[in-house]
Amino acid sequence: MQKELSVAFVWHFHQPNYQTQPNGIRLMPWARLHAIKDYLDMLLILDKFPNLKLNFSIVPALIDTIEDYANNDGHDIHSKLTITPTEELTDDDKLYILNYFFDANYENLISKNPRYNELYNKRYSNSEIGINDFSLQEYADIMMLFNLVWFDPIWKKVYPELKEFEDKGSNYNLEDRKKLIDLNRKIIKQIIPTFKKYQDDGRIEILTSPYNHPILPILINPKDLKTPFLKHQLPDCKISLIVDVKEQIKMAFEKIKNTFGKEPQGFWPSEHCISQKTLDVLANLGIKWVITDESVLSNSLKKEFVRDFRGCYEDPYDVCSLYLYKTNQDKEIDIIFRDSVIPNLIGFEYPHHDSVLCANDLFDRIKTVHDKLKNSPDKKHLLTIAMDGENSWESYPEDGSIFLERLYSLINDDKNIKTVLISDFINQNKKIEKPLKKVAPGSWVNQEFQLWIAEPTKNLAWKYLVQTRNDLKEAEKSGRLTKEQIKAARSEIYIAEGSDWFWWYGEPNNSGQDHIFDFMFREHLKNVYTIIEKPIPSYLEMPLMSFMGKPLRTPKRQITPLINGMVKDNDEWLHAGCIDIPDGPVIQENKILNRIYFGTDKDNLYIRFDINKYLLDSKESYKEYYSIYIYIKTYNNSLALTSPSRTTNKKDFIHPILLDGYTHEVKFAVTSNRKYPLQFSTAVKDGLWELQWGHHIRYVHKEIFETCIPYDDLGIKPGESFDFFFITGCSGVTEDIYPKDIPLTLTRPTE
Q: What is the pLDDT of residue 583?
C-alpha cells in the first residue's frame, strides 16, 4: 500500500489592538507595516503554483485594524507624523522620530538603502546626539525611508512610484510622504477581498483565534494546569473567566463569518496554549478542529518523540496522525499537532543561510518524513507546519520570497507530496482518527505557560485585570449601567485579556518598548472605570515595572561594583552604561543576553551581563555551549597588532563592526551548572591570537554575570581611550553582536 503524506501549511497573522480609545490613533505601526509587507504576498504567491493550497489563521482584532486603515482613514503615530509638515514638528516629535523610526531589520532593510543607512549611522554614532543635530530635511528623509523600506518587494512592480521614490534616494518632500501613506491604504484595502476570493476559489482555508488573542487555559483557571513551572507562585487572586473565554470565541467566529462570508471550521488557540477544559469549551461551542504543538501530544501520550542529529523524527507516525477528543457530554473535536522543529528552522535558523539551500533542506526533511512512514499502518498522514506568518520574513533576503518560491515549487512539482486545506483532509479521513482521552496542558513554549503568568510583574498585571473585571461585574449587578456601557466596558476587558501584554511584562521578554505596552494595558483597564463611572484606582496610574530608559546609555560616572554575581538593592550599576537587548514578537530561542552594563573606575573596566535564564533553564541547554566574547581595541601604540574576531558567521553578510581588527579578546563560557576558565588573548602577527595566562581578570556568575578587567592587563594608561564590543555565540557560531555597527568607546579615568 502506497503511503501518502499531505502537508498543511498554516500561517498565523496576529497583531494586538494598539489603540487606547475605540477611535484613537494607534501607538505602534506594526499592523500597518506587516499589512504592506507580509499579508498579501503570502497569499498572491499561490498564483505561481496551481497545485498549492495554504491555510491562514487570522486574529479578528487584526481584521478590525485592517478595516480601520482601509476604510476609516486610521492612523498610527508613525503614519501621522509622516504626513506632518516638518516645520510643524515639535521637539517631542523629533525625539520620537530619532528613537522609533529606525525600528527595522538592519541587514535587509536599513543597510541596503544608502541614505537610510547614512542617517542610521549618524543617529547611533554618538549616544549623546540630540534633536538639533538633524535638519528638517533629514527628519523628512528618516520618516520617508522608514515607511518605504517596509514595502514588500513585489509592490515595486505594481506601483512604479515606489521604485521612483527609491531611486530619488533623499530630499523627500511632504507630497512624497503623503503619496507613500496613500499607497499603504491602497494595498491594505485589497487584503480582505483578496483573501475572500482565494477562499471562495478553494485555494485557502481561513481559521481563527479568540478575538483578542487571550491565553484560554489561564483565563479558565491556571490552578488546573499543574505544569511543572506553574507549581511556582501564581497571582494571589482567583482567575475564573470562562464566560469571557466563550464570548471571545463566539465573537471571533462571528467576525470571520461576517468578513469572509464563511464560518471557520478550525481554531488556532493563542500561542498553541491548550488544556482539557479548553477543549471542552471549544467542542461544546461546535468548533470542528483545533491545532496545537507536538509537545502537548508528547505529554498526553507520555511518549518522547525521538529525533536524529538533524532534528528529523525517528518515527513521525504519532505527530502525523489525526486525533479525536470527546468531552463528557459526547461532544467531539479533532486535534492536529504541528511539528515543532520546522517552525524554529524557518523562524530562527534559515534566515542566516542561503535561501535556496534552506528551501532544499526543508523539502528534504518533508521527504524524509514521507520515507519514514512506509511501515505505517495507515495510508494517509498529515505533516502540519504551523507558525507565525509575519515576523520572520524581514530577516530573509527579498522578504522570504526566494525561500518560499523555491520550497513551494519543489512541493508543487512533486507527485507524492501535496498540500491540503485542513478541513478537507479531516473530512476525508475520519476513519484514521485516533482517540485521545486525556490531553495534557501546554503551549508551544517549552510545554509551559511561564511567558504569560507566574512571574512577579505578570502576576501583578493579572491581579489588576481580575480586580477590574470584578468591579465591572459589581457595576453590572447594580442595574445602573446601560447596555451600551456594558458592551463598551466588556470590550476593554477583552482587549486587556490579550496575550501580548503578559508576553512583554516581566521576564524574559523585552520589546525595547515595554513602557508603551504597559501604558496601553493600564489605559484599557482605566477605560473600564471611566465607562462605568467609577473612580480610577490610583495604582493604575503607575507603571507596573521600572524601565531601563534608552536602549543605549553611556556611563554617568565612575563605578566600583562588588564582583559577586549578586543583584544589590542599592544598585551598584545605576550609573553604568547600558545596552538593553529587545526581543522580537517571537521568542528568540538562542538569545543569550537580556542586558549589558558597562562602566569604569581608574583601575578597571567593569561589565555585567544579565543572562537569559529561560535559555539556561531549558531542558535542552545542557547540549549547548554558549559563549560571550569581548573584543577590545587600544590605541596607545601605533604599531600594535590587531586580529579579527574569530567566531563563525552564519551567512555572508558581514556587520561593519567585524571588518576591523582588535588588540584583545576575552571569552567566557556560559552554562547553568558549571564554571569554565575564561580565555584572555592578545593579537599577534598574521591576524592570529595568543592565549595569555598571567592576567588578573575576574568573573562571577550567579544571579548575574559580572566581570572586572584591569586596565593594566590591557596596557591602557590613564587618559587613554579604547573601543570594545560584544559577540554572543553557541559552539563558536555567532548568534548576535552588540552593537552591530560602531563599537563602544570609553576612556580610562585619570583620577
A: 59
